[in-house]
Amino acid sequence: MATTSVELLSSPKYSNPYPSNARCYWKLQAAPNHVILLDFMDIHLQDSTNCEKDGITIYNGGGLSAPLLGVICGVNTDNVKPSMVSTSNQMFIAFKSDDTEPTYNGFSAYYVARKVEYCDNVTTIISEDTVLSTPGYPDGYSGKSNCYNQWLVQAPKIDDTIKISMADIVLPPNIPCVNCYMRIFDGPDSNSKILATICSATLADEYTSSTNELYIEFYTAFPWTGNSGIAANISIIEIPEVQHPNGNHSNHHPDDHIPNGSGYNPAGAIAVFVSIVLMTVIVYVTNKYKIRCSRNRRRRGSDHFALVNEMDT
Which UniProt keywords apply (predicted)? Predict the structure, then answer.
């Protein structure tokens, strides 16, 4: 059970080598309306591609079928300490090792549950390009503490996407990620897919939404002063409009549209098709029937011609 008190979690026999062929699982559950924060302090695991040998897998829910929060392996440095935050009151952690000997010293982390409280109503940003920053930036943090600041970024056009680039991240030193972090979601709220959890400059990058909405949360356990804070550049990625011959516009990418040939006329094509069909019928009838003209005798002062059809057999 995850509580508001900090608890420790570690690999078997930490800080001695963990056993080979190990399989360990932890299910963390907090009270309703809480999230779980997991902060790694030390990681010494065997490194491999996609962490396929030894590794820690963190899930955003209560089991192995929950969405993935992250996979960790290798050896961390002092400047890179991964942190994970659930979006609900559950988190599931799985640790595995292969049969390689000798093993490494393992990992240690602490976790804590935190009640979800919001500082103010969500701030909605609808703009072509703008800068988003934490309250008080660049002179520290002047907003409320122990609550979430919220931003909802919306692109003006529904087919556009949003790119956020972390321009500046300066936070007070020696603060665990669970006490000060920013989360970026690919969608309109915290139920959307997590793109990133950021708490240091070493974890900064740029991220792009898959829709025209991007939701951002920032949490800090306390205010601070000094030349610090977070700033990010927000830019809109527009899908170019395609001008159709009839004057209509489309926001689909040009490669998604296959234009008609130059001068193409649907009505003319239909007329040609009908003409071909009629010619085919006439040729068929001509070959199928013999048409002969016989002159009848003149009656009542006029000539009369009769068409006599004889079917070939």
Answer: Disulfide bond, Membrane, Repeat, Transmembrane, Transmembrane helix
Q: Which CATH number fits domain 7-115: 3.40.50.300, 2.60.120.290, 1.10.1040.10, 3.30.420.40?
A: 2.60.120.290
Token pair of 58, please? 């963190």
- Dump strand ranges (E) for 33-119: 34-44, 55-59, 68-72, 83-85, 90-96, 106-115
Q: Is the pTM of this model over 0.85?
A: no
Higher-pLDDT residue of 276, 118: 118
Query: What 3-state class would DSSP assign to 170?
Result: strand
The token pair that represents 175 in the structure block: 């603060």
Cα–Cα dist 199/201, whole Å: 7
Type of residue at 207: Y
Q: How far is CA 90 from CA 10, 28, 30, 60, in A?
A: 18, 6, 6, 7
Question: Measured between alpha carbons, how far is 82 from 76 in angstroms, rounded to an integer?
Answer: 9
What whole-number distance in Å separates Cα of residue 69 and Cα of residue 65? Answer: 12
pLDDT digits (tens, 9 = 90+) for 227-266: 788 999 999 998 776 555 565 555 544 444 444 444 555 6
Interacting residues of 122 by C-beta distance below 8 A, sequence separation 6+: 150, 151, 152
Q: Nearest 5°: phi and psi at 274? A: -65, -40
